[in-house]
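Can't attach files on this board, so I'm pasting raw text. These are the components:
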Amino acid sequence: MKNTKEYIATHRNRFIQELIDLLKIPSVSADPAFTQDVLDTAEAVEKALLEAGCDTVEIHETAGYPIVYGEKQIDSSLPTVLVYGHYDVQPADPLELWDSPPYEPVIKKTEIHPEGAIFARGSCDDKGQMYMHVKALEFMVKTDQLPCNVKFMIEGEEEVGSNNLAVFVKEHREKLANDIILISDTGMIANDVPSITTGLRGLSYVEVEVTGPNRDLHSGLYGGAVANPINILTKMIAALHDENNRITIPGFYNKVEELSAEERAEMAKAPFSLEAYQNALDIDSVYGEKGYTTNERNAIRPTLDVNGIWGGYIGEGAKTVIPSKAYAKISMRLVPNQDWPEITELFTKHFEAIAPKGVTVKVTPHHGGQGYVTPIDTIGYQAASKAYETTFGKKPIPQRSGGSIPIVALFEQELGSKTILMGFGLDSDAIHSPNEHFGVWNYLKGIETIPYFYKFFTEMNKG
Amino acid sequence: MKNTKEYIATHRNRFIQELIDLLKIPSVSADPAFTQDVLDTAEAVEKALLEAGCDTVEIHETAGYPIVYGEKQIDSSLPTVLVYGHYDVQPADPLELWDSPPYEPVIKKTEIHPEGAIFARGSCDDKGQMYMHVKALEFMVKTDQLPCNVKFMIEGEEEVGSNNLAVFVKEHREKLANDIILISDTGMIANDVPSITTGLRGLSYVEVEVTGPNRDLHSGLYGGAVANPINILTKMIAALHDENNRITIPGFYNKVEELSAEERAEMAKAPFSLEAYQNALDIDSVYGEKGYTTNERNAIRPTLDVNGIWGGYIGEGAKTVIPSKAYAKISMRLVPNQDWPEITELFTKHFEAIAPKGVTVKVTPHHGGQGYVTPIDTIGYQAASKAYETTFGKKPIPQRSGGSIPIVALFEQELGSKTILMGFGLDSDAIHSPNEHFGVWNYLKGIETIPYFYKFFTEMNKG
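---
Top answer:
Structure tokens for the assembled complex are below.
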């Protein structure tokens, strides 16, 4: 690869402006109120791929939001890279906690991002990281250095479970045929500690509803005499963990992969400061499963978190009511070998079983996905490692992530190829949170590093 | 009293229409969005009292919503009745559960109300029951049968704690001097089983806030490693009851009045069908403190109910977030002898004490009030009993209510007089719930019965 730095320096401001324009469209897939914005974003991605140099770009309609598919074929004898990303974003609420409006991107310097970071919903997850690949393609095409074939598959439902992408993949195995899948939707340890994600957690996301009396009741006239759905819901959720913070669902841990002492020792080598971690979150203590370190708890151990809870009167002031219903959204992060449909079923059975008389319980599965592991001895991993080494000046550390990209396991199953997770974001980028941001340095470093992956992967395939 | 039935029959439709007009004003004291409506309601009450025959009516400004005070003095040697009521109402949400808009009153027949019931927020609690007294006064004045002096004190903050009424009462002891206080803000057992409320529960209402990390976090990257404020809040709330559904707050039961076997046997005589109770609420079982019946649980035993809970993502679809904060509104119903400020302090200390490391807890007291008991051997109770006997044809049953009218205990303390609770609503009227209603029969029966109380109370005072 020649002149990567020069090309990026020359087009730096345009690269940033194009991303900012994309971030201005509130493509929230979880909320029907933003339907048109999500559709507009798909068209913006189509346009960007064409301008970057794709020969053909199609917008594939699905039962949900469309999938943008583009490709640049140069020689069928050369390997093919399939780039996956998503153009939808998480909801931005709570809005009041944003220092600047989530869809009015601004660049501000931070301690970790002295060159400035772009603050906006989706800046890192995943519009910013997806767009690095679009600009990397532009560089390779415009400078005649694209060493292999490339396909892009950018979806609009990653934040709501990718159900329609799964259908699309199963129906287009040939079109999507590839030698390696490349995704930037994860993070790295630090700007001076590059890392490659080699493991992802699975996910089971459910919504529960507890119903007591057939109507809201006066807590004076009925208080103490009937089951209060909120009190019951808190009891039931509390019962899902034991005193060691282990999940109490029967069978939940049956298939959990237990790492060897060696593997855990290897993981422990990654630089980590518990004090810095706690300070960054303003907490006086971490909290989790007994017997595991913080990095183990959020990477190799399954979890159960309530992501939302509501019931009764939540407005201003006071209302003395016993509500008819109480609700919660609950997600379980799973580790390799745990099967998400099975876990969803175990949860449902158990949750129904622990409901006391006086209430009825409904569990509605939302979505889920399997965990995933990338072996570090593959050509794909080696090519990525060499690419980071070239642009960062040091070998990246293989790292398990606690996050989930449910579709990755399905890619391997349906397309038979491995996925390389080249993430350039940082944990502190606040994805899924108010004030999400993505470092300008990280954005440009990604655009610089990605072409080297194409180069080394193509060379390693020949040799 | 002469011609009560005739007068009511003649003016029936106007009495109903006037109440409907009052119910159209959404006087929700808990929600600042309705400020002007609450103020408009105060003026409507002022107008109604003047038209009913009060000599003077004043709107007393307070730090919150005004108190409407009116009086009709006929002879200082005669006894004085002080009527208390409130013109504010509970919030109407959840609006989607109303069969007709809460502030567009409609009259519909029901099984229990064959003559029809007025459906609207506040129809029973307390606009409808308060207005019975206004119309009873009109009858006595227009027919020259008012046997004693009468004072009206109608406030606009009962649903939010009556804090400013307490100040008003302390500052106007002389103005409010009376021989008996009369309130219709409770219910009776059934239209053919009249009852008088002789006991009220106290109340302590608090709001709690649990804070974990300083921002919302991605549940994949942080799940399992940090305390999730929602999970913690459910654990803490669940821990407030033991396996027998007794409240675990140290000292909570210290001052609870334990009724004798005789008193409990007397209470048990009130007609009650557990099956009918469960069917009316569509529940397969009641739920409460071990060792007590349903009627005991909601009348003579203290309780702790969550009235509202919220945290995390509660919108459409799914969001994998660990929120920074989770909240709950919690109210405790207290029994006579329990001191609400003391209970509020015990709750606060305990709730802070059971917070695990990794979160901080904030408890904000909302409001509260003491419990109350009316002895049945007083002239006031006897006069009320005789009034019911006259219009219902049978002796009313003395009954403890689970509800709270915090101000009643303060009346006795500051004004030195007892309160008679002549309620004409039914538990099934759904006060504080969607589709609140008040039977037309009950409304008119109240207007018919109240004048007899004035008559008998005045006679018993002379004799």
